[in-house]
Amino acid sequence: MWSDNETTVDYLNFGVVADACAKLLQQANGTPISVGVSGGWGVGKTSLVRMIEYRLKQADTPGTNSYIVVTFNPWLYQDFEGARGALLQLVGDEVLRLAAKNEPLLKKAKRLLKRINFLRLAQLGGEAAVTLYTGVPVGSIGSAVMKAAGLFGVGEDDDTKESDDGEGKKKEKATDKGMPNDLLKTAEPVSLPNEIQAFRNALEELLEELKVTLVVFVDDLDRCLPKTAISTLESIRLLLFLKRSAFVVAADNEFIRGAVRVHFEGTGISGEVATNYFDKLIQVPLHVPRLGINEAKAYLALLLMERAHADDIFNKSGFDAAKESIPKRLQTSWKGDAVTSEFLQSLVGSSNAPMLALMQLAEGLAPLLTQSSAVNANPRLMKRFLNTVYLRSALAAPQGIDLDIPSLAKWHLVERCDETLANALAARVSSDADGRVPILREAEAAAAAGPGTPLPEPFKDDPFSREWLQLKPSLGEVDLRPLLHLSRDTATRDFGADNMTDEGRALRDALAAATNSNAPLTEAIRTAGAIQAGLAMGKAWQLKAAKRTWRSGEDVVPLIEPCKVFPELAAQASALLAEAPVGKVGPGVIPLLYAQTWARPTLDKWELDASVDKPTKAAIQQSKKGVR
């Protein structure tokens, strides 16, 4: 199974984009910069960000500049803690870690953390807001704010506190006695803008002294509720445009616009203003490249190779070579170097039949998963699609079901992309027809004949239906019950009762394949017994319907042979024969049929039928003379 986690392994040719972004961040050379990585859900924003991070770490020059990457996921803090405070704390903790081995810088880092604590308390409002305005602590929150602001010595320089022993003890004693704090120090309103600027100055100074560039990756912003998203953006603004700082924000632009509109609901804000809000935060907009059929084919092929390698179907050297060759091929696709069948086959080897089948599957799935609005070439959805297919494959073997990956993928594709068609086909699956759907067989033949041949109902004459019908393998001759049984995660199915035994099913298959009378077939009929032979005869007759030409004797072998062993089946055979399309019956089938007593009444009717052609009538008349 494929995990839904980000990766630095490039299956989508994102490497060139990551290279460009990393180079841009390096060229900033300490100048503050903000990059917005935009794209919809599941298109690979986080993976692209991870690739950028990897490239930045390769560019470290210790002593001059090192890239310190902090990843912030506001979605994790939603409903637990304010995203703004959480981001500030994350930055402060990282700076404290970096300064741990340098005593002077460590003291500065600790003071920075105190300022962060103060700013986190300041956003609480209520008692905190009154305290900040008046300088007098109001309630427990007000006392905490005052303490964080330094009115109780917390905001002062650590050296000053340590030297000011006597005064500190006096304050402590006075507080212990319950004396009002404002008697110890004249209440002075705290200037929040000054505190914010002091925090920014302190952080900027520390980054310069540490010789690091702080790169903050903000991820999963488009998973957050609008309130959390806006809070995160506001905290970004607090840290933005500091020297030696960079922000990379991964989010869907449409989601951000929607969050801004919700935030300013009732103010009459226009769509243009909502767009400008984000644009003011982001200097460089970077869009995740959209996938076309070529990229989707490459992605599917690599995923299938990865799984095949894990299953020991594809060797490591071949897989490693493919991971290098396919992205290179995509980089030159603009020249016409497409990911063709021949190219994929050359990567897996012409003698590896299982891998060739998987590459054929990737080629067939790519256009359908790209054009379908249900998937739209979304990497996450394509990965989930394959996960479902392989999960069903894992469930098949313990239930005695033998199905290959291409068959499972073809059926899941129609479930995923055209649920109405899938349900219509499933409704036609029954035990009476051994799970075969004749209309599906007809549609596959029509699609193979070309665009001029109309498709039968319930198929729509659209590109998806035609391409799906031509996707290998064909399912028109396949018992669909196993496929539907494994797809019970989408719907439950009732195929009706199947009263056949193992001997009956074996006889059914033997009759469907038989072209003449033979001893093994006769023995199989006798072993099955009259009841099972009758069931097998009826089902084999249905199975051969599409291939029956009505021109040679082998077409009627499934009716004739069971009746030889069990004459009591004659009435059933006669009824099946009576349903024949008499206009298609040729003279070649008549002699063998007329030799069967039970078939003669039906042939006598054909002789009088105006739709039967003259050669066939002549063959009937000739057979009658031979009997006399």
TrEMBL record:
Entries under InterPro entries matching the protein: KAP_P-loop, NTPase_KAP_P-loop, P-loop_NTPase
Pfam families recorded: KAP_NTPase (PF07693)
Region (Disordered): 156-182
Amino acid composition bias (Basic and acidic residues), ranges on this chain: 166-176
Domain KAP NTPase residue range list: 16-394
Biased composition (Acidic residues): 156-165
Classification via PANTHER family: NTPASE KAP FAMILY P-LOOP DOMAIN-CONTAINING PROTEIN 1, NTPASE, KAP FAMILY P-LOOP DOMAIN-CONTAINING 1
Name of the featured protein: P-loop NTPase fold protein
